[in-house]
Amino acid sequence: MSIWVFDVGQGDAIFIDADVDALVDGGPTNIIIEKLSLILPFWDRSIDLIVNTHPHADHLSGLIDVLSRYQVDQVWTTGQVYQTGASDAFASMSQQINKIVLAGSSIKLQENVTLDVFWPSTSLQGKVLEDPNDGSIVMLLTCFNSRILLTGDLGAKQSELIQAAIGDIDVLKVGHHGSATSLSTEFLEVINPEVAIISVGENDYGHPSTSVLDRLESIGVDTYRTDINGDVRVICSEDGYQVTIYKQQ
Amino acid sequence: MISLTPSTIMRTLCLAFIAGVAFMSWGFVFSVTVSVLGLIFIIGQHQSLNTQVCIGLLCLTIVGMSFGLWRYAQSYPSDRSIASIVGQEVLLDAVVVDTSVNHSWQHLTFSDLRVGNQDFADRLILTTTSYPRFSYGDQVQVRCEIETPEPIDNFAYDRYLATKDIWATCFSYQVWKKAEGGGNVFMTNLLFVRSRFIGKMDQVFGEPQGSLLVGLLLGEQRFTDAWQDRFLKTGTTHIVAASGYNISVVLKIALAFFAMINIKRQKAFAFLVSAIVAYILLAGADAAVFRAGVMGVVLLLAYQTERKTSMVNILLTTVVVMLMVNPRLLRDDVGFQLSMVSTIGLIYLSPILKNKLRWLPENFVIRESVIATLAATFASLPILLLQFGTFSFVSLITNVFVLPWIPLAMTWGLIATLLGFVSVHLGALISAPAWLALSAMLWEVKIFAGLNFYAQSIHWIVISIVLVGWGMILLRIFINRNSYVLN
């Protein structure tokens, strides 16, 4: 079983390659199709689950291409309203298979592998958030004995609300591309990751921020960045987990 | 008494017309060069020359050139051009006639432009966000500031747009769809079928195989920048464009098919023309595709007649007809130029190269691939150097490796896509041979591009030396043309 954090530029696209496979966000462009085609056999034209953590384009746009090119069984969203052309297109394409999720939602991906939702704590269906990032779906992937936290673009303030429930983890997909407000020292101390992965590309926002990188370094976390390391793969089994990187020439 | 033959009259008129258009496009020096070369060509073909013939040629030249000058003058924007209100922010009503998506942006070409009560006769290109998507025939309203197109780096984008009768651009986040079905009914249905076909192909194939197939079968260019760069570096961009070359591949497949079922080439002519028409329709039937289709028919005639003299007339007529429709192509549409010279190369140089390269193996169409690539590359060398200042040293070898896969990829890709309409999973399973061929082509392009044997921003002195050498080789071929025929 493996988790791929793809290098899709400035955005997020994470693929969980399990018996029930899941794509968490699709990045800002259709490059996700090329990434999926590289790891899925050519005859496999279906994806069981798509999760859109929140409706910002750098997480959502690629999913529209995935929906039009793959047979998708189920789509998870928070139901928060965000009126853009891309968000409307995604909503209309996934209408029949959309499921609104919140903390407590869960799915078994294969034996000993589960995906549990920790945020949002209440239903966001029909709500308009001042900052859509605050409504990001946060999920913990438990893979045998390894725990991998997928945070969408959730900021430090909201993260601290769920840190106790999450507890100690092994791998952290850092929130909001490593922005200055994505990660607090307190949150890091509670979840205590060994490995951090930052999904980031060329950008004008200063992502990832040096303060976040310093914070991770100070507690001895091995940090991988998709803009430097390329696609990051975490392979997990009953013996633990292993991180490998694939940099395309 | 010696007089002008109908063939000479036609050639003189055609060349003079092209010279007239060239004069308007480039100016005096180029036009004189074209005229002098044209006259040398005609006089060279005309064994006996007397005063009467000379006066006749001169009169014909004046008539043809005047017509060329007049036609080009007609292509300037009229008083009713949207360019007349550049700088104004307006609420514009229009009909979408073309769409393309690039990264996060959507480019929409508008016609039937109207601002308030004022109608405009030309077109405009709008850039907006990639969603919501618009389609051909959508009637839209947009608020934007009308701008003049500008050259991008070394690319004369403004002049290129002018070939499509587009004299203004605008950018807006606010585009409202008011109604559908504002376009031509035939085109609406054609593009609907085409988009369904592409949609199914996309469900059956992943990436980048899907983009390669859609380029091969439908001339749709949608590769990522990284892949476009690789095609450029290996001189293989032509295989994924709706080019004259692409059409000739369709022809070769059709020829092979008819040979297989024992129908003679002559009898198959009508069927092959139908195949070209089908390709033109599938590729979206826009002007560039249509021109590529016409060049395909010209190639077909060349295979058919084997009489090189009548081919000169056919080629000249084709160029003149295309320039009559759109005189701006001559200078500003590289696609038109490349399509034209590579067709000339394929017709005239292929037989010569065939003689010289008999030692090459015929297996897997290796010999044909080498000949076709050499002929097309040699003929288009000046345009590539002058327009782009680039040259790929691995072009020949990459093409030789890539081209043989094309018939398999196209035929099997088509079969898998059609089966996809029955079941996507069935189509995907059956697609194995096409997937293999497409993957092999992409792998080869990637490997050769990685070698980086590619020169860009070539110095003008180097270009001049190469062009002189090119001219000398061409002259030698021209002088020895009779011995080649004897061979």
Automatic annotation (TrEMBL), chain B:
Coarse class of the protein's main subcellular location: membrane
Residues that span the membrane, as ranges: 12-43, 49-70, 239-263, 269-302, 314-330, 336-353, 365-385, 391-408, 415-438, 458-479
GO cellular component, one term: plasma membrane
Compartment(s) of residence: Cell membrane
Highest taxon listed in the record's lineage: Bacteria
InterPro entries: ComEC_N, Competence_DNA_uptake, DUF4131
Segments forming domain ComEC/Rec2-related protein: 216-475
Topological relation to the membrane, as annotated: Multi-pass membrane protein
Keyword Manganese: no
Entry annotated with the keyword Transmembrane helix: yes
Entry keyword set: Cell membrane, Membrane, Transmembrane, Transmembrane helix
Domain DUF4131 intervals: 26-177
Coiled-coil regions listed in the entry: none
Protein name: Internalization-related competence protein ComEC/Rec2 protein
Signal peptide: none
